[in-house]
């Protein structure tokens, strides 16, 4: 198997999950964001691995989940789109005082060399029970992710603030799927 593992990342609340859903509706394999899955699980069982309670525990769990997601995706054919992943979790871990991103990830690029980045878009940002941080905090996270992608030698493709269908077409065209 030789899947193309494509990462969607960037600002929290910038439209990644909506874009992922649009790609899934077009028949592509997708992987949901580890962070949202972890938060839902931790809230349901009253756990502490939550970004607003214990960021280290949350990020470590996200890294493990992202590793499992990557292993499972290796068994797929074609393109697999990820809503966040190992890079995002490594950025969170480093920001919370853990090891550096390169110490966590090593030198190997886990995803396709081109990474799609959604910019901060206040019109889309909505806080909820699982997203308790502010838009300003999301913007700061976005900048950390961009710097990390550059340091890891990924090619960032910034998605414009356009409709989800237009974004999906940009992504698919860049991936050679249109």
SSE string, helices as H and strands as E = EHEHHEHHEHEH
> What's the overall geometry?
globular
Radius of gyration: 15 Å
Nearest-integer average pLDDT: 87
Summarize the structure.
This protein has 178 residues and is of the alpha/beta class. The chain contains seven helices and five strands, in the order βαβααβααβαβα.
SSE map:
Elements lengths: L3 E7 L5 H10 L3 E3 L2 H11 L10 H19 L5 E5 L2 H10 L5 H5 L8 E5 L16 H17 L3 E4 L5 H11 L4
Parallel strand pairs: 1-3, 1-4, 2-3, 4-5
Protein name: AAA family ATPase
Organism: Yoonia phaeophyticola
Pfam family, one: AAA_28
Explain what the structure shows:
With 178 residues, the chain is of the alpha/beta class. It has a single domain, classed as P-loop containing nucleotide triphosphate hydrolases (Rossmann fold, 3-Layer(aba) Sandwich), CATH 3.40.50. Helix content is 47%, strand content 13%. It contains seven helices and five strands, in the order βαβααβααβαβα. It has helices spanning 16-25, 34-44, 55-73, 86-95, 101-105, 135-151, 164-174; strands spanning 4-10, 29-31, 79-83, 114-118, 155-158. A five-stranded parallel beta sheet has the order 2-3-1-4-5, sandwiched between helices. β4 (114-118), α6 (135-151) and β5 form a beta-alpha-beta unit. The protein is globular. InterPro entries: NadR/Ttd14_AAA_dom, P-loop_NTPase. Residues 6-167 form the NadR/Ttd14 AAA domain.
């Amino acid at each position: 198997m030789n899947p193309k593992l494509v990462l969607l990342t960037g600002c929290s609340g910038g439209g990644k999950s909506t874009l992922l859903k649009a790609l899934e509706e077009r028949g592509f394999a997708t992987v949901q964001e580890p962070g949202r899955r972890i938060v839902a699980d931790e809230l349901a069982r009253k756990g502490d691995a939550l970004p607003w309670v214990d960021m280290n525990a949350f990020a470590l769990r996200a890294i493990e989940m992202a590793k499992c997601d990557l292993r499972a995706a290796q068994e797929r054919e074609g393109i697999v789109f990820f809503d966040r992943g190992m890079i995002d979790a490594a950025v969170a871990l480093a920001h919370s005082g853990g090891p550096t991103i390169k110490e966590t990830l090593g030198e190997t690029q886990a995803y396709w060399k081109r990474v799609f980045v959604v910019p901060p878009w206040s019109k889309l940002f909505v806080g909820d029970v699982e997203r308790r941080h502010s838009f300003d905090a999301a913007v700061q996270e976005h900048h950390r992710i961009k710097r990390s992608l550059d340091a890891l030698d990924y090619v960032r493709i910034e998605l414009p603030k356009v409709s989800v269908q237009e974004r999906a077409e940009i992504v698919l065209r860049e991936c050679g799927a249109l």
